[in-house]
Amino acid sequence: MKTNIFPAIKLTLITLIFFGALYPAIVWAIAQLAPNHGHGEVVKANGKRYYANIGQAFTEDRFFNSRPSAVAYNAAGSGGSNKGPSNKEYLGIVQARIDTFLIHNPGIDKKDIPVELVTASGSGLDPDISPKAALVQVKRIAAARNTTEDKITQIVNSNTEKPLLGMFGPEKVNVLNLNIALEKL
User: Fold this and answer.
1) Does residue 162 contact residue 119 with C-beta atoms inside 8 Å?
2) Quick check: 129 pLDDT over 80?
3) pTM of the model
């Protein structure tokens, strides 16, 4: 028994020191080299602070809609709905989102709605949408803001982020930054 218990205690102490102190200290030190020192991308607008890397709800017709959230955009408990495409309750929720989108965006066909505008992401906090998801909302926003579709399209194009190094990941648009740019019109 002595031959097993002392190595187990030593391994436990080494693991505790490494994962409880050393590893967190290394991660913290690396974060200090990052922009905002590991505190996320803070955006200040209209006297308020927002985090550009956490999805937020925008429901007014004059703003771009974010991707739906299964956790009501609560960053304290991120997560998906865990409901599959055969779940009737989930299908009802998606259909309700489609119906709401079509009501607020007349003239758009159901087949033209990008999937990310009616389904939540795995974290429920995705701050980005595709350029296609932004462009499908241009007509509604231009009408609500009494401006031209070209101006709104130009804002979408200027806020579109290209893939990392031109090949890693899709093009994306941060919804918070997009809506802040709209407010500057």
Assistant:
1) no
2) yes
3) 0.77
